[in-house]
Amino acid sequence: MSIRFFTIILTLLIFTTSSVFAQEIKIGGLTDCTGATSDVGKDYALGLVEAFNYVNDTGGINGKKIKYTWFDYGYRIPEAITKYNFLKRMGVIAIEGWGTGDTEALSPTV
Prior knowledge:
Blueprint: H1 2-21, E1 24-31, H2 38-57, E2 65-72, H3 77-90, E3 94-96, H4 100-106
Parallel strand pairs: 1-2, 1-3
């Protein structure tokens, strides 16, 4: 149990210190703007962009701007997985998701 506890604490420490010293907050997004649920996904994507723009325009979070990078995955699950892996490599600390299919496919990985 102590090794598990130590691993959790170390992970939190690394995550917290890297976020504290970062100049920007990287957030990713996977949205369906061209696929089966695009009739609602387009508005969802626009809402996220506008929300992050508003946060940045009003001072950011503790003075740090949000860098939001998102992808239209067209409700294609393999595309969502590819884009998720790319966002992870970019070092995002959170990913805004859209659909059931990609969420179910990514849940074992996330």
